[in-house]
Amino acid sequence: MKKYIWSLFLVSFLFACKDEAKVEEKQEESVVEYTPITDEDLETAVIYEANIRQYSEAGTFNEFTKDIPELKELGVKVIWLMPIFPISEKNRKAKGDLMVEDIEDMEERKKYLGSYYAVADYTGINPDLGTEEDLDALIKTAHDNGMFVILDWVANHTGWDNKWVTEHPEWYTQNEAGEIIHPAGTDWTDTADLNYDNQEMRDAMTASMKYWVEKHNIDGFRCDVAHEVPTDFWNANNAELETIKPLFMLAESEKKDLFDEAFDIGYNWEGHHIMNELAQGKADVNKWDAYMKKIDTTYPADHILMNFITNHDENSWNGTVQERMGKASDAMLVFQYVIPGMPLVYSGQEYGMDKRLKFFEKDSIPKTKGRVWEQMKQLGTLKNSNSALHGGKDAAAYKRLITNDDASIYAIERSKNGQRVIFVSNLSNEPIKAKVSGLNGEYRDLMSGATVKFQEGMASDMSAYAYLLLEPIN
C-alpha cells in the first residue's frame, strides 16, 4: 500500500512538473524581446496615463504592474507614469488656496498628500508608491508585453523643499527682494519657479533626466507645461538624451517650434476643447473642419497630436467624460481614435469611471469591466491592426467626405496601404437624415460586426450623436 501511494505521488509529481513546465513555456512565449521605441511603433500606439496613487486601494507600483497584461488587451503601447517622485512637504497644498500647514487638526492634515507636480527630488521615488526595485519590475513587465514606459517630467518648477532651493537658490526665479517666487501668472504656490538663464541648472536638469534612462531604462518623457521652458533647452536636452537610445518625447503643449527638433508629439488641447463644445451643442462640425484645416498648415507633416476625451487635469478640475460629454460620450470615444493622431486613455476611463478623482488626496478608480472596456478593446485592436488608423509620423490619409449637412454630420475616410476606414457621426443633439457622398454598397460596422448597405443618394436616419465606423466589404 505504501509502495502504491509512493508511486501515485511520484506520478502526480511528474505530471505537476510537466504542467508547470507548460505554464513556464507559455509565459516565455508571451514575452516580447525588448527593443527601443521606433517610428513604426508610433503609428499604432495607444497611450495610457497611469495615476499610480489612485489606480488601486494600495496606490503602489506593484498593484499597477499586475494589470499591465490586461492593458495590452486595450492596445496600449505607451504607459505614461504620472510623477513618481517624492512630493514636497513645505507649502504643500490641501485644496484651493488652503495649505496643509494652515490646517490645525493634525489628523486632517495627514489625508492631504500634495501635488504630484511639486517635486522634492528629481532622482528619488515617492516611498508611498514603492521602491526602485518595484519600479524596475513594472518597467520590465511593460517591456515583456511589448510596451514602453515614459515618466512625467516637471522641468518648469520644483517643490519648495527640493535640495536645489537651499543649495542653489540662484537656479530659481527671484523677485526684486531676492526671494524665490512661484511660477508667475499661476496659483501653483506649492512650487518654486526655475530660472533657465542659469546654465548650471540646465546641465543639472539634463543629468537628472539621463539618470532615469541610464539606470531604469525609461523610454521617454511626458514634459509638463513644456512651453514654459525655453525651446533651446529642450532641443539641446532631448538631443543629449537621444545619444543613449531612441526615446518617445511628449510635450504638454501645442507650441509649434517644440516639434521642429525636440518632441515627437504634443497635446491636442484646442481640438479637445472643440470636442467638448460639439458634445455640449456649443459648436457645430464647421468649427471642427476649420480646426483641421488650421493644424494641417500649422504643423509639419510628421508631427503627432495626442487626442483625448479625459486626462488627470480634465477629470479632476473640469469633470468626468459623462459630465462634459453626456450622450455624445460614445461617439467622442470613437472620434478620438479615428481622427489623425494618437489616442490617450486615462486611469479609470477604461472602466467607464464617472467620478472626479481627488487631486491632493488618496482616491481610487473603479475596477469593473463593462461596456466601455469592450469598446476600448475593439478600438485598441483596430488601432493596432488597421493601417487606415495609423497616427504617427507616416499617418494614414485623411479625407473629409461631402454630406447633406456639414454642420451636423461629420464624415471622414482614413486610408493607407489599401485599407480604408469610414467614420460617420451625427454630432448634433437632434436626429437627422444623413446622406454621405461616395457611400455605395456593403460595409462592415467595425464596432457591431453588422453588415450595412448604402445606396448612393439614399438618406439614413441617425439619432443624436449616433455614429458608424465602417470598412468596405470587397
What does this structure look like?
The protein is α/β, with parallel strands linked by helices and 474 residues long. The chain folds into two domains: 29-395, Alpha-Beta Barrel (TIM Barrel), CATH 3.20.20.80; 409-472, Immunoglobulin-like, CATH 2.60.40. Helix content is 34%, strand content 19%. The protein contains 16 helices and 20 strands. It has helices spanning 2-30, 39-43, 52-55, 61-66, 68-72, 106-110, 132-144, 163-167, 199-216, 231-241, 269-279, 285-298, 312-318, 321-325, 329-338, 371-385; strands at residues 46-50, 76-81, 93-95, 98-99, 148-153, 157-159, 191-193, 220-223, 248-251, 265-267, 304-307, 342-346, 397-400, 409-416, 419-426, 432-434, 441-445, 451-454, 460-462, 467-472. The strands form five sheets. The chain has an eight-stranded parallel barrel. Strands 13-14-15-20-17-18 form a six-stranded antiparallel sheet, covered by helices on one side. Helix 9 runs parallel beside helix 10 (231-241). The termini are far apart. The model is unreliable at 1-19 and 21-28 (pLDDT under 50). Pfam families: Alpha-amylase. One of its GO terms (biological process) is carbohydrate metabolic process.
